[in-house]
Design a protein that fits this description.
Blueprint (H helix, E strand, L loop, with lengths): L1 H6 L5 E3 L1 H7 L10 E3 L8 H14 L10
Antiparallel strand pairs: 1-2
Amino acid sequence: MTELLAKGGLERRAVTPSEIRSIEPALHGMVYGGFFTPSDFTGDIHKFTHGLALACIRHGVTMRFPPI
């Protein structure tokens, strides 16, 4: 998977538990390993999805949701 993502321009690398803790000291619990993507960051998912929905509507999309 990492090779496929690299072909698309996404840089990521496998990291050890100690590397993970140095990258994100706030993590707690058992960590066995993971991947680090330098271009990744945190955002407000509600703000993003709301803005995306509004942009879609501005471009003529009709939102249709199933009944709850």
